[in-house]
Amino acid sequence: MADFKAKKELAQKILAELACSTCQDVPGPTGDRKNRYGCSNGHMVCEACRFQECSCKSKIVSGPFNNIEKILDKLQWHHCGHFKHGCRDVIEAKNLDEHEKTCIFREINCPELR
Fold first, then answer.
1. Which residues face 46 on adjacent strands?
2. Average pLDDT value over all residues in the chain
3. For a Cys staple, 37 with which of 63, 66, 104, 110, CB 3.0–4.6 Å?
4. Cα–Cα distance between 101 and 75 in angstroms, integer?
5. Cβ(29)–Cβ(96) under 8 Å?
6. What predicted TM-score, i.e. pTM, was given to this entire model?
7. Could you check whether the bond before residue 64 is cis, i.e. omega within 30 degrees of 0?
8. CB of 86 closer than 8 Å to CB of 105
9. What is the distance in angstroms between the CA of the first residue and the CA of the last residue of the chain?
10. Alpha helices, DSSP H, located in the chain
11. Kind and range of the H or E element at 30?
């Protein structure tokens, strides 16, 4: 059990280090959420923020980083894809899709607004 908890905590620390310096979103295991770019000062920037200035006001100069994609592929734990909306759960990769479908922070379209 201690090994299980230690792996989860390590994943949380790794993901926090790879958070976007502009929007603070953490990377995910698939698609554009995996892509990380770098500014000239070495800060990480996500796919959505790569055409903006970094939080330090420098330009984005490199990426996506293949080595970060490889690290994310090997992690057993990932933050929920609704991190930017408030979910701070760290889920085993095999259960992530199911969690995101029922996450209380997911976007729900109101039928009254159609």
1. 36
2. 87
3. 63
4. 21
5. yes
6. 0.76
7. yes
8. yes
9. 48
10. 2-17, 66-74, 96-102
11. none
Which of 92, 78, 89 shows the shortest CA–CA distance to 4?
92
* pLDDT confidence tier of residue 113, bands split at 50, 70 and 90: low
| Residue 102 tokens, joined | 């029922």
d(CA 1, CA 91): 16
Q: What amino acid is encoded at 69 in this protein?
A: E
With cut-offs at 50, 70 and 90, classify the pLDDT of residue 101: very high
Angle at 1 between CA 3 and CA 75, to 5 degrees: 45
Which residues are CB-neighbours of 95 under 8 A, at least 6 positions away?
A: none
Give tens-digit pLDDT for 43-84.
999 999 998 888 899 888 888 898 988 888 888 889 998 998
86 token code pair: 């408030």
Instruction: Report whether pLDDT(2) > 80.
Output: no
The token pair at 43 is: 């800060």
The per-residue pLDDT for 100 is 93
- Please name the residue ranges forming H helices in 39-90: 66-74
